[in-house]
Amino acid sequence: MDSSWMFSTKDVNKIKARMDLRATAGDGLRALSALESYINASDISRGVLDLVRLRVSQINGCAFCVDLHAYDLKQAGESDERIWALAAWRDAPYYSEAERAALALAETATRLHDNPNGVMEPVWDLAAMYYPEGQLAVLVLAIASINAWNRINVANRQVAGAARHAGP
């Protein structure tokens, strides 16, 4: 297998985004940000939303979003154990049944290629047990939104931590 396209450890500090999306597609990014504002203003807890965002970002391999949402969770007081174990949430004792339902929906809706029939009824029904229709709609929007952000950031090779470490 030819791995010449991969970065070596000495190249990590040379990673940079392929383009400045704020300059080239600012209106589009503002539209996605407006959707995020709508989602964040909902009555679904920010903790659940950020767990979903982090888990979807792990699945999609988006280093920028994994870094961002793990940092956000930590800043909000989330325990290290819950952040570290999120990739194995099914086998970890740290998550409520409602969080598990949201994570199952997020994984299933993100991994559509794994099921040609889309989100399976048992997954949907479990989420609907914990989230009334209005919250479920927002949860679906949150899952779609983070998938869009992941694809944008992975395609552009957005650098993990760049937003936090940028100067004024």
Mean pLDDT: 89
Q: List low-confidence stretches.
A: none
CATH superfamily: AhpD-like
CATH topology: AhpD-like
Gap between N and C termini? 42 Å
Report the CATH C-level class: Mainly Alpha
Structural class category: mainly alpha
**Any idea what the shape is?**
globular
Biggest sheet record: none
Q: Helix share of residues? A: 55-70%
Supply the number of helical segments: 9
Gross CATH architecture: Up-down Bundle
Q: What is Rg?
A: 17 Å
The ordered H/E elements are: HHHHHHHHH
GO molecular function: peroxiredoxin activity
Pfam families: CMD
Protein name: Alkylhydroperoxidase
Organism: Frankia casuarinae (strain DSM 45818 / CECT 9043 / HFP020203 / CcI3)
Kindly describe this structure:
It comes from Frankia casuarinae (strain DSM 45818 / CECT 9043 / HFP020203 / CcI3). InterPro entries: AhpD-like, AhpD_core, CMD-like. Residues 30-107 form the Carboxymuconolactone decarboxylase-like domain. Pfam families: CMD. This protein is mainly alpha-helical. The chain has a single domain (44-162), classed as AhpD-like (Up-down Bundle), CATH 1.20.1290. Helices cover 62% and strands 0% of the residues. It contains 9 helices and no strands. It has helices at residues 21-24, 26-40, 46-60, 63-75, 80-84, 97-110, 121-130, 133-156, 162-165. Helix 3 (46-60) packs antiparallel against helix 4 (63-75) and helix 3 (46-60) packs parallel to helix 8 (133-156). The longest helix is centred in the C-terminal third of the chain and has 24 residues, at 133-156. The radius of gyration is 17 Å and the shape is globular.
